[in-house]
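Give me structure tokens for this 335-residue protein.
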Amino acid sequence: MISIPNFLRFGSAPPDIENLRQGKDIQLLTRLLQHPDLTVQWKAAEALGTLGTDAVDYLLNALLEHDLSAKLGAIEALADIKDPRAVNPLINLLNYDKSREIQWASALALGEIGDPAAIDPLWDALWNTDKYVRYGSAVALQRLGWVPVTPEEKTWQMIALQDWKGIISLEKAATDPLFRMVTDPDPDVRYHAIEILERLRVVLPQDICGKMLRDTDVKVRWKAITAAKKCRVPIPYLPWALSKRIRVKKSPGAAALLNFMFLGLGYNYLGKWWGFLVFQIYMTTLLMFTLWPVEMIGTFIFLLFFQIPGIPIPLPISVIFAIHAWDIARKMPEL
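Here you go.
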């Protein structure tokens, strides 16, 4: 079956959401969750949320869609309706969906529905590798009336809520969870974990210190340096430990090659915001010269913009800009 693009599926005139809601046109409202206009999407989800249990079956089917907007809108509507039939499908999304946004939204929706059956899955989600999913799960657990029993559970809750100051009061009970956060995918979480460990005045295992000092983020690495005294790591050891980190410096060769093949993209690779702008200007100029007859350009201009067969790049200009990108990359500091 051929998929119809969103901009062809819906008319150009904004749909009358209120009229559809009053007419209980649940099928069309569900389709509008995939509308290209974000305002239409959330208004449709809001309308569906007011239609109660009549809309649940349609919304549960929408959870099976591959369209991200449709799934998010359906989750929002189900959270408003609070029908128990949505609990298990939302738990499945929380546990297995590949989209972090879907997992996050599912966690929040489970908190709104209020079914205690979601407590265990939400507790497990406090160990999720994504901080947004952890946060949504912690908020949902609070909505469900869940209260931490042990200091360790309280630590995991505070980590999920990003309550770093509150963790300090837990003292050594927070140590093991914070050790795990030292390798979290988010550099801001890693930074705060190291900062709190430093303030807790605990002796850090050397393997944890090694991970801290080898961090790819420059801010996290510097915080690890200041916390290294808690590891009982000798000061002369620090440069050696830092040398073991993963190098993330941009490659001069890659920058030069990109600028040679696609002028401007080498700068973009180096993080220069104007790199893509240079690329657009260059391609527009090249297109203009390509469309003009050779006689109008003149022999000199034609030779100047001589191109290698199969590569739409003026050779002399490409070489100059390739060398420039290589020089910029060579002088950039290593992170």
